[in-house]
Specification:
The protein is α/β, with parallel strands linked by helices.
Length: 605
């Protein structure tokens, strides 16, 4: 994993390159490189995982009369298959890195190379003679790629902070960006970077920039297919796809570990990895997070029915992993608020981000690569809103059924119709869902739900995992984001996914025998959070300091009086997802204020 950036059709002095590279250090601390040619400057910061000696970037290749320069962030999980195919076409390789294979694949197949890639990636290729840049991002959106068209040229980077480091770029927020922060946040419109005129290349998209013109296309999306497999055949196919994805993602020249929550998804990954490593005479490192005094303060709820620790101990005892706990205090969480905002370049998921940031710092002390269970819930239908008929039938984003609470916070500075803004985004996503003619009403709605989660909620979680981990130079892989799993599952009927009326029932059936029955059948519980009242008090104190400051930038967007009223009431729905309630709402508002200050954001509406 790495950080990449580029300057095309714009001045790229050594001073500018150095300034932009300095923002990339946390993503790529092991090496850095600069390439310059014909109006293009490419920058790279490397976190060396595969072939440390032979995978340096920017990487150059001369082939068939053209010279290609590549900067790449990611990991390919079908490297050897591609290497074998390219060798048959006359290519030779100097090392064993996936970077070199990707560069040769582009030289051979051009833009169509993306169709052949199984992995997580964002990359740019400059063609010296044609003087054009190719950009691409993985199908699911695991690795980030932002861009800005600027003064006739193009800037791109793994993170927004690198684009903002270019000397003539200003951090600006227009009305649409402000509406996203308050009405949709921490989610954001697909393709939006929230900052004015900064965009994100959407998942499954690629394109060329040449002669001042950027042309993008979507090369992949969820497509509906007739599902002809029986339930038993579907179970077998799912078991193969999941275990194959996990095994492929274990490839590394450095030690790996797994996140372990004791839930179904992380436990499946851990069981497969532990078995593979035991066969090699090695012991898997596993990592869990908990909170000081959570045994005292934990409160079961509809969204979080039980605590993780008993199930984690059961997994560790069964698999004999080398396990490490990270125990966080309320002060640890509060102290991470600012760093987590800087890591994301935007306000995020409050202490759900803060805890992961601190947790990843502890993991990085032991391993450089870890596997995590994100995105199984989106693909297999694990979230409560998939299975709650009332929420499922309601118009609007199911993880944020609180639009009126959000609207009440807005100042008069945001003049657009807030309800219309949210519903337009929701309706467009529903319309974009690919659904076969003749599909039943229930199946149609479930496919809309899957596509909504893919385009919105899952992207927020992938942002979180990428930024919080890479802030500590930790590469995190997400096997459930293998596009083959997503493609297959999209066409599987809801009746199969909801097998025996249990969330992710199909996945549970597919992994029978891999886990103890206690873990396999455990009711879903989300990422753990603290219930310690000290954390809520710390957030109250921090927000009160902002309330006491009439010049705080937050009040340009949000009414202080409305904030006081909101915090004195009990909201029916979480702010976002399952975990963001009163303490997290306060933390999110504090993040917005800090973000406006730290990035010196100018309002341009």
């Amino acid at each position: 994993m790495c950080a990449i950036s580029g300057i095309v059709g714009l001045p790229g002095s050594e001073e500018t390159a150095a300034k932009m590279l300095s923002t990339m250090y946390r993503r790529g601390p092991d090496d850095k490189g600069v390439y310059r040619s014909g109006g293009c400057t490419l920058l790279h910061g490397r976190l060396a995982i595969i072939d440390p000696a032979g995978g340096r970037q920017p990487m150059l290749l001369s082939w068939a009369g053209e010279t290609y320069a590549l900067v790449y962030n990611g990991e390919l999980y079908n490297t050897e298959e591609l290497r074998w195919e390219l060798t048959g076409l006359g290519h030779t390789f100097l090392g064993h890195s996936d970077t070199e294979v990707l560069l040769h694949a582009y030289a051979q197949f051009g833009a169509d190379c993306v169709e052949k890639l199984n992995g997580i990636f964002a990359f740019g290729v400059w063609e010296e003679k044609r003087r054009r840049l190719f950009l691409a991002r993985d199908r699911i959106g695991v690795k980030p790629l932002f861009y800005k068209r600027h003064r006739g040229g193009l800037l791109f980077a793994s993170e927004i902070k690198t684009i903002l480091a270019y000397p003539t770029v200003r951090a600006e927020l227009d009305e649409t960006g402000a509406a996203q922060l308050i009405l949709l946040g921490p989610g954001r419109l697909p393709g939006s970077g929230v900052f004015k005129d900064i965009f994100e290349l959407e998942p499954g998209c690629c394109g060329y920039f040449a002669d001042g013109d950027l042309r993008l296309r979507r090369y992949w999306k969820l497509r509906d297919r007739e599902h002809r497999d029986s339930f038993e055949e579907t179970v077998e196919k799912v078991r193969f796809l999941v275990t194959d994805a996990i095994r492929r993602q274990m490839v590394s020249d450095v030690p790996i570990g797994t996140f372990l929550s004791g839930g179904l998804d992380s436990s499946v990954i851990t069981a497969v990895c532990a078995g593979e490593m035991a066969g090699r005479g090695e012991r898997l490192k596993t990592f869990s997070v908990d909170y000081e005094n959570n045994d005292k303060y934990f409160r079961p709820s509809k969204f979080q029915p039980n605590s993780d620790s008993d199930y984690i101990h059961l997994m560790v005892d069964t698999l004999h992993t080398d396990h490490r706990w990270t125990v966080l205090t309320p002060e640890n969480l509060a102290d991470a608020l600012e760093d987590a905002t800087i890591a994301r370049d935007l306000p995020g998921m409050a202490d759900v981000d803060f805890s992961l940031l601190a947790f990843c710092g502890e993991i990085r002390e032991n391993v450089k690569v870890a596997l995590s269970g994100e995105c199984a819930d989106e693909i297999f239908g694990g979230y409560p809103w998939y299975r709650d008929p009332e929420v499922r039938a309601r118009e609007g984003f199911p993880w944020a059924q609180n639009t009126q609470d959000r609207v009440s916070l807005l100042t008069g500075a945001v003049c657009l119709d807030p309800t219309e803004f949210v519903m337009d985004a929701y309706s467009q996503t529903c319309r974009e869902s690919d659904i076969l003619p003749g599909t039943s009403d229930q199946e149609r709605r479930m496919k809309q739900m899957v596509n909504m989660n893919f385009r919105w909620f899952m992207q927020t979680l992938l942002d979180r995992k990428d930024r919080m981990s890479m802030y500590h130079s930790l590469e995190v892989r997400v096997p459930f984001c293998d596009y083959r799993i997503a493609e297959y599952l999209y066409g599987v009927p809801w009746e199969y996914k909801d097998y025996q009326g249990q969330e992710k029932g199909l996945l549970r059936q597919a992994v029978a025998g891999l886990l103890s029955e206690e873990v396999r059948l455990r009711k879903k519980s989300p990422y753990p959070k603290t219930f310690d009242p000290r954390y809520e008090r710390l957030m109250e104190e921090r927000l009160q300091r902002i309330l006491d400051d009439p010049a705080a930038p937050l009040w340009q967007l949000i009414s202080a009086e409305a904030v006081r009223k909101l915090l004195q009431s009990q909201t029916q729905w979480p702010w976002y997802g399952q975990l963001m309630r009163r303490p997290q709402i306060m933390a999110y508002l504090c993040q917005i204020d800090f973000w406006l200050r730290h990035y010196r954001v100018e309002l341009v509406f």
